Amino acid sequence: MTAVPRPTPDPVGEPQRRPTLTPRELEVLRRWLRSESKTVAAADLGISLGTINTHLIRIRAKYAAVGRPVADKSGLLIRAVQDGLVSLAEL
């Protein structure tokens, strides 16, 4: 398992706030980031597309709640890398 790094300071010196994701949210996020689509990620995990969407909505809401909103897959990828949730080597 990968160690979780400390939050890095943002440009004004304040630490980044990181949302607390559940283990399942992390699993879904990582699988989706490595997949070409939500449909492929859902099939890989054995869950429905609706369940994938629900997890991603919750993940985005958690990022928004800590002042770091994201709107799309590339934004979530950036946040996940910044927060040490996924490495580029995993992708």
In short:
By secondary structure, the protein is mostly helical. Helix content is about 50%, strand content about 0%.
Summarize the helices and strands and which ones pair or pack.
Layout: H1 23-34, H2 38-45, H3 49-65, H4 73-82
Helix pairs in contact: 1-2, 1-3, 2-3
Features:
disordered N terminus; Arc Repressor Mutant, subunit A; single chain; mainly alpha; 4 helices; globular; 91 residues
Describe the 3D structure.
With 91 residues, the protein is mostly helical. It is built from 4 helices and no strands. The longest helix is centred in the middle third of the chain and has 17 residues, at 49-65. The model is unreliable at 1-5 (pLDDT under 50).
Strand-pairing-aware structural class: mainly alpha
Q: Describe the biggest sheet?
A: none
* CATH architecture label name of one domain: Orthogonal Bundle
In quaternary terms, these chains amount to: single chain
What best-fitting shape do the alpha-carbon axes yield? Answer: globular
- The CATH class of one domain is Mainly Alpha
Mean pLDDT: 88
Q: How many beta strands in the DSSP annotation?
A: 0
